[in-house]
Amino acid sequence: MDWFRKPKYMTVRVKKEKKAGIPENLVTRCPSCAEIIFNKEIAAALKTCPKCNHHFQMSAWERLRLLADNGVFIEQTSGKIQAGDPLEFPGYADKLAKGRKKTKLQDAILAGICAIDGTKTALAITDFGFMGGSMGAVMGEEIARLIERAIVDRLPVVIVSASGGGARMQEGIISLMQMAKTSAALSRLDEAKLLYISVLTDPTGGGVTASFAMLGDLIIAEPNALIMFAGPRVIEQTIRQHLPKRFQRAEFLLEHGMLDMIVQRQQLRETLGQLLRISSS
Asked: Where does CATH 3.90.226.10 sit in the chain?
């Protein structure tokens, strides 16, 4: 009788079928237009959005393939220069190791000699993937050596900046010294009457902006690149005012005379080639 009075329950476990998910590394959501795009389409458009022309970040190796004729490049030091840890900054060695593993570079820069659209050029490219592309002793030394080589061999210099990290705080005053070091080297390049073209990409900031990035005879930027010294939030909090729309973006800087031109990524190699040929004629 108790069996009829008290209800009994039975738990039945139903095996759920696994839903077919989207494979990793197949699509990317554009941060500008929010469209979901196949990575193959982005790669075919040189890492730009085919819908809204947003320029995604590129690694130093990707930019090298974009600019150097046939991808041929003679690396300056083959990564033999490595950063020290002068301040014994906590965790710095681990960050360096992660940066090297991620970018396949010894530091946040790739420097050497190549031909750009037929003109032999001293080329340096910074990589945001290595600690935000921040500048330490290695970057300053690589740029100074490249410029000295250009002076001896009578070559133009092109530096592509993707350094939102500015001067590397883990190296303290040594990183700040690289601002003066690279600026002095570029002064010697100017005295030798050789061309220096600075290409600014998203993002370029801090001590890099305050030194070699803004010292070009010609300064070119990619569309919508963030170019700054201090970030917009820091400035707003300091002056307690709202900043103009598109402040610190490439188009804003072009309107205010800080840039010479904005060039689409698809036309960058051709444009650099034209400028280099004009300067050498």
From this structure: 58-280
Which of these, 123, 147, 235, lies nearest to 244 by C-alpha position? 235
Contact 162, 110 (CB under 8 A): no
Element (H, E) at 252: helix 250-255
Dig out the tokens for 198 from the structure.
């600075």
Which residue from 55, 53, 77, 92 is spatially nearest to 172, judged by alpha carbons? 92
Q: Supply the pTM of this predicted model.
A: 0.89
pLDDT in tens, the chain (281 residues): 554 555 555 566 666 655 555 566 899 999 999 999 999 999 999 999 999 999 999 999 999 999 999 989 999 987 789 999 999 999 999 999 999 999 999 999 999 999 999 999 999 999 999 999 999 999 999 999 999 999 999 999 999 999 998 899 999 999 999 999 999 999 999 999 999 999 999 999 999 999 999 999 999 999 999 999 988 888 888 998 888 888 999 999 999 999 999 999 999 999 999 999 998 87
**What is 58-280's CATH superfamily?**
2-enoyl-CoA Hydratase; Chain A, domain 1 (3.90.226.10)
Q: Is 161 exposed, middle or buried (0-12, 13-18, 19+ CB in 10 A)?
A: buried
